[in-house]
């Protein structure tokens, strides 16, 4: 289990969300890259030095500091779409191999290089992702596959590089909520949402919205999360 590439975004125009820029165009970089906790969402700060988010309402911040996607899943999409997908093509910071990132449990901790990262939540596809891939019906196709890849928060800052092993340091013993299951709960299977409320590692910012959706808070009949 290791990192094949560390990918940092190159700012480019974002006509798909009417924003001045997007950082989804991520390219592999050489050498160690510093990683640290970026702080609260809203500034565009992310975990990797030299990278940032431009849709500050929906991306960036501690719970979405680093995004990982498996090379094996990219290879599957290559075959399905009939096109080459380079490392970083899905906007991931870390392209991994040898680890099923979608089977990781929320709260699972990985050591990569000198940093420790924690699985926090799944990536939810957005209009920028659909526009970037230029694939008809992409949001529906990606959602149906339920291979979102995880966002990770930074528990211990450090540096990481291509070739670094991914070592699973710990896995929660009090739940079995995987990245894939949490994605299905947030997209196609809302009956699974109550399970997310039982997971300490799930982002606090999303809890109240989920409580309303499952009828555990005020406004349950009228509220629901938007998809960034």
Automatic annotation (TrEMBL):
Residues 27-169 form the MOSC domain. It comes from the Bacteria. Pfam families: MOSC. Residues 1-38 are annotated as: Disordered. SUPFAM superfamilies: PK beta-barrel domain-like. InterPro entries: Benzoxazolinone_Detox_Enz (IPR052353), MoCF_Sase_C (IPR005302), Pyrv_Knase-like_insert_dom_sf (IPR011037). This is MOSC domain-containing protein. It comes from Actinacidiphila polyblastidii.
């Amino acid at each position: 289990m290791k990192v094949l590439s560390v990918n940092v975004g190159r700012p480019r125009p974002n006509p798909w969300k009417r924003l001045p820029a997007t950082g989804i165009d991520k390219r592999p970089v050489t050498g160690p890259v510093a990683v640290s906790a970026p702080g609260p969402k809203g500034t565009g700060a992310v975990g990797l030095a030299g990278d940032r988010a431009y849709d500050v309402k929906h991306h960036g911040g501690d719970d979405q500091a680093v995004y990982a996607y498996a090379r094996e899943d990219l290879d599957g999409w290559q075959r399905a779409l009939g096109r080459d997908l380079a490392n970083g093509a899905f906007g991931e910071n870390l392209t991994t191999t040898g680890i099923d990132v979608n089977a990781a449990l929320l709260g699972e901790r990985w050591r990569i290089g000198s940093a420790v990262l924690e699985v926090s939540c799944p990536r939810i596809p957005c209009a920028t992702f659909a526009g970037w891939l230029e694939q008809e019906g992409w949001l529906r196709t990606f959602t149906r596959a339920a291979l979102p890849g995880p966002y990770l928060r930074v528990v211990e800052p450090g540096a990481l590089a291509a070739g670094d092993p991914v070592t699973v340091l710990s896995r929660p013993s009090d739940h079995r909520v995987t990245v894939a299951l949490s994605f299905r709960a947030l997209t196609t299977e809302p009956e699974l949402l109550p399970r997310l409320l039982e997971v300490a590692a799930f982002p606090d910012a999303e809890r109240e919205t989920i409580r309303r959706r499952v009828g555990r808070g005020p406004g349950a009949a009228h509220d629901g999360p938007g998809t960034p």
